[in-house]
Each structure stands twice: as structure tokens, then as C-alpha cells.
Write a structure and sequence with these properties.
The chain is an alpha/beta fold and about 375 residues long. It contains twelve helices and eleven strands. It is globular, with a radius of gyration of 20 Å. The structure holds adenosine-5'-diphosphate and zinc ion.
Length: about 375
């Protein structure tokens, strides 16, 4: 059991630690900011990890003297971020007599984190929760920042709350079973932090990225720590996304539209869409005369070398554009994009013409 890195998310009285290490699940007691003894605890997971990591965590909590440990799983996938699953999770919490001492542990990827976090935010008007992210994406992204929520027929993450966890425990051992594509999708979000405002980190990734994806503990822990720290810094400045937090959306205006057009059927993962979206954002920046072409080429080369897609393969461009126009950030045909003056120099651009964006996508599809 070793903690390799830790990050504190500074949010005044709601500050919390992120611990990154090996064997954390089995020795859970030492890593919690509260004593689990005597409490009624809840462990939410999805079917894929119920029998492994959720069980391991529950065993650790029982050993630490918890009065009751209840485990529940939802089907894996975005569809579980629903009213129906929210209701079932809340009923499970209330039926098992949660009280003010209770804590919910959300084990898994972004889906269980978002659903579990939201249930914790509103059960009994809010009980504490602990994030135990087991995907690289969740470790570097959704577990920092306190956004929780579900999807509704009107769109993704339309109902939710900001509810900060009491702690985040990233156990690197859990990544051993994560499918390669899911791992790389998480890597795209790591690279994003270098591209936003840390050119040295991007240079480091250019030489160390292969080791990160080979799960070499020290290098992997360093990459996760840097990503979490950078996100934590941005979130601490702008917890509810009024300004600088928008930079975290680099690659996401394109990415969300590609993802939606592909239909969330597993053919294009979120991180894969972000990888393509970041390359498109750099291409658009070059086109608008903001960014040197060489920087765009480096971004594309590195992401492709890691095994990520860098061009859209979905060919219905009108459908992609329709999703981009439906984005909540559109006014008068102008969309908010995060562009870049170079690697590590991302900026918010409010006045981008959709025609330019469309042209960039079309060219990229044609292999230009
Ligand atoms: P994210 O939004 O973080 O990518 P999801 O909650 O959609 O996460 O999870 C992605 C997929 O990976 C799901 O099918 C989930 O069951 C699976 N999964 C999560 N963690 C692991 C793990 N450590 N090993 C194997 N599969 C995992
Ligand atoms: Zn993202």
C-alpha cells in the first residue's frame, strides 16, 4: 500500500484530498478523512466492477469497523445516469436507513461518480461521498470539481448539483483491468491540461506518454497528479464555471458534437472525441492565424502516436453541425470555442463563425 502522490482541492471548508497510489482500496481506513467505524455506509458501482473493486472496498470498510456496508450496482453505461436509476439509488439509501453519519462511496467511472454524487447531494439534503474512480478518465477529470448529475430526455447532465466529495481515492491497480481504448480516452484528457496552459507538461508527455499508458506506477501517478492539480487550480478559481473554467472545454465543442452525432453507442468514446476535437481546435486556431502550424502538427502527431483517433470518421457533417448548433452556448450562429495561440496557450473565443468550424471538420474528414 503506497500513496505516490496527493493533491488538495482548495475550496475553503469544502476542501478535500485526492490520493493517488497503489493498494489503496485494500487499506481504505488509512486514507479516509473520517473514521468509518460504527457508520452505515453505501457503495455504489456498476456491474463490471461490482465483484472486484466494490467488494474489495466493502471488505476494507467492514474491517475498519463499519456498522453496515450496503453494495448496489447499476448497469454500465451512460443510460444509467437517468431519473429511474437515481430514484432506485435514493430508495436504496433511504430504505437502508441512512443517517447523517452515512457516507456514499462511488466506485467506477464517470457514470457511477455522477449518479452516486448526485444521489449523495440530495439524499437527506446531502450526505458526504467519496469518489473511488476506476477509469483513467474519471481519475483525471470527473472526480475533480464536484459536478454531479444525470441525463434527461432534454440532454446530457441537464439535472444535477455541485457536490464536492469528502475525498478522492485513485487506486492505480484498478486500471490494470481497464480496456485499452478506455485508458487512451483518459489519456486524451491528461494531454488536454498540457495544451491548455502547461507547455512543459506537454513536452514531458511527448517523452513519457508511452510509460503512462503502460501503467508504470511512478510516471502514471505523476501524470494523474499533474492533471488533477491543474484542474483543481482552475476549479478553485472558478468553482461554478463563470469564467476560466471554460478552458477545460478545450476540444469539447467539436468533441461533444462528434460524440452526439455518433450516438453514444460506444463507437466513439468521450476521450476519443476530445482527442479529435483538440486537433480540430488547433487546426481552426491555425486557420484563424492565431497559432503556428508547427504546434498543431505536434498535437496531432503525439495523440496519434499514443493510439488515439485524430480525425472524425463519422461522415454526416450536417448532423455534426446540427448538434453543435444545439449546444447551449450558441448565440446568433456564433459558438464559444476554446482556441489556442500555441501549445499551452488556450483562450476562450466567443465569436467563432460556424462556417469556419464546418470547413475545418470537412477538410479533416477528407484527410487534408
Ligand atoms: P468514464 O465516463 O469514466 O469513461 P464509465 O462509467 O462510462 O466511465 O465507464 C466506462 C466503462 O469502463 C464501463 O463499462 C465500466 O463498467 C468500465 N470500467 C470502469 N472501471 C473499470 C476497471 N477498472 N476495469 C474494467 N472496466 C472498468
Ligand atoms: Zn471531457
Amino acid at each position: 500500500m503506497t500513496i505516490l502522490e496527493s493533491v488538495t482541492v482548495n475550496l475553503g471548508s469544502r476542501s478535500y484530498p485526492i490520493h493517488i497510489g497503489q493498494g489503496l482500496l485494500a487499506h481504505i481506513k488509512e486514507h479516509l478523512p473520517f473514521n468509518p467505524a460504527g457508520r452505515t455506509l453505501f457503495v455504489l458501482a456498476d456491474y463490471n466492477i461490482e465483484n472486484t473493486y466494490a467488494e474489495m472496498l466493502a471488505e476494507g470498510l467492514k474491517k475498519a469497523g463499519a456498522a453496515q456496508v450496503h453494495i448496489r450496482s447499476v448497469p454500465p453505461g451512460e443510460a444509467s445516469k437517468s431519473w429511474k436509476q437515481l430514484e432506485s439509488v435514493l430508495s436504496w439509501i433511504l430504505d437502508n436507513k441512512a443517517d447523517r453519519q452515512s457516507v456514499l462511496f462511488a466506485v467506477g467511472g464517470g457514470v457511477t461518480g455522477d449518479l452516486g454524487g448526485f444521489a449523495a447531494a440530495i439524499a437527506l439534503r446531502g450526505i458526504p461521498f467519496v469518489q473511488v474512480p476506476t477509469t483513467l478518465l474519471a481519475q483525471v477529470d470527473s472526480s475533480v470539481g464536484g459536478k454531479t448529475g444525470i441525463n434527461t430526455p432534454q440532454g446530457k447532465n441537464m439535472v444535477g448539483a455541485f457536490h464536492q466529495p469528502a475525498a478522492v481515492l485513485c487506486d492505480l491497480d484498478t486500471l490494470e483491468t481497464l480496456p485499452r481504448r478506455e485508458l487512451l480516452a483518459g489519456y486524451a484528457e491528461i494531454a488536454k491540461y498540457g495544451l491548455i496552459n502547461d507547455p512543459e507538461f506537454f513536452i514531458w508527455l511527448e517523452s513519457q506518454g508511452t510509460k503512462v499508458c503502460a501503467l508504470e506506477p511512478q510516471v502514471l501517478a505523476k501524470a494523474i497528479e499533474t492533471a488533477c492539480r491543474k484542474k483543481a487550480e482552475i476549479v478553485a478559481q472558478d468553482e461554478t464555471e463563470k469564467g476560466v473554467r471554460a478552458l477545460l472545454n478545450l476540444g469539447h465543442t467539436f468533441g461533444h458534437a462528434l460524440e452526439a452525432a455518433a450516438g453514444y453507442d460506444g463507437s466513439l468514446l468521450h476521450g476519443e472525441a476530445v482527442a479529435i476535437g483538440m486537433v480540430l481546435a488547433f487546426r481552426l486556431s491555425v486557420r484563424l492565424g492565431l497559432c503556428p502550424e508547427a504546434d498543431e502538427a505536434r498535437v496531432e502527431k503525439h495523440l496519434a502516436a499514443m493510439g488515439l483517433p485524430v480525425r472524425p470518421s463519422f461522415s454526416d457533417i450536417d448532423k455534426i453541425m446540427a448538434f453543435m448548433t444545439h449546444d447551449k452556448k450558441v448565440t446568433d450562429g456564433k459558438v464559444v470555442f476554446i482556441l489556442a495561440h500555441g501549445i499551452g496557450k488556450a483562450v476562450v473565443s466567443k465569436n467563432i463563425d460556424l462556417k469556419d468550424a464546418k470547413q475545418i471538420i470537412a477538410e479533416s474528414m477528407k484527410g487534408k
